[in-house]
Specification:
Blueprint (H helix, E strand, L loop, with lengths): L2 H24 L3 H23 L5 H9 L5 H25 L18 H24 L7 H20 L5 H11 L5 H23 L3
Helix pairs in contact: 1-2, 1-4, 1-7, 2-6, 3-4, 3-5, 3-8, 4-7, 5-6, 5-8, 7-8
Length: 212
């Protein structure tokens, strides 16, 4: 993994955290949050796809590893870059919003959502997201249109899941705001759930949907 790819993953994950979580922090409008998240994913897929693939998400990288599309050593380096981007995003939100009173857009469960329900929802939404990535960007079947499909998928997942779990689909995006808002108690859920969904998408692509 070269330095351009590493920096691309840091900046892309930072942007998703800072803009996506930031929009959730300053607005109660799930449509605004979904639009912000979807546009960040779409834009950075175009901007950095040629450098790193623009994973900007540890679950996406894990799904690609399960699918046999990336080596494990490279996967670890991607995770480091993505985690760094998420933490920087959370730290800068803490600074510009004057503390954690806004919640920093942290992904937390709604009062009526049990941890098991939240885990399943994060798994399902991440599956849909990573499945789109596999069958557009990885398969190269739609050419330069892949970022549009990927960004739109992320947006509709946030529209549905935002009011219930915060619709993380991304442990790094959850990590930064969780650290600086003191909401790390259920961080495991956003790792386990998203990795399960990504693994299923990776296995489905590798075993059935990938063209020989």
């Amino acid at each position: 993994m070269n330095s351009k790819a590493f920096i691309s993953e840091v900046i892309g994950t930072f942007a998703l955290t800072f803009i996506g979580a930031g929009t959730a922090a300053v607005s109660d409008n799930v449509v605004a949050t979904a639009l912000a998240c979807g546009l960040v994913v779409l834009t950075f897929a175009f901007a950095y796809g040629h450098h790193s693939g623009a994973h900007i998400n540890p679950a996406v990288t894990f799904g690609l590893w399960v699918a046999g599309e990336i080596e494990f050593g490279k996967t670890i380096v991607y995770w480091i870059a993505q985690g760094l981007g998420g933490v920087i995003g959370g730290a800068l939100l803490f600074f510009v919003l004057g503390g954690a009173e806004s919640g920093l857009g942290a992904t937390v469960l709604a009062d009526n959502v049990l941890p098991t329900q939240g885990l399943v929802l994060e798994a399902v939404l991440t599956f849909l997201f990573v499945n789109t990535i596999m069958n557009t960007a990885v398969s190269r079947k739609v050419g330069n249109l892949a970022p549009i499909a990927i960004g739109l998928t992320f947006a509709f997942c946030v529209l549905m899941g935002g009011p219930l779990t915060g619709a993380s689909l991304n442990p790094a995006r959850t990590l930064g705001p969780a650290i600086f808002s003191g909401t790390m108690d259920l961080f495991w859920l956003y790792v386990v759930g998203t990795f399960i969904g990504a693994a299923i998408a990776g296995l489905l692509y590798r075993g059935f949907l990938k063209d020989d």
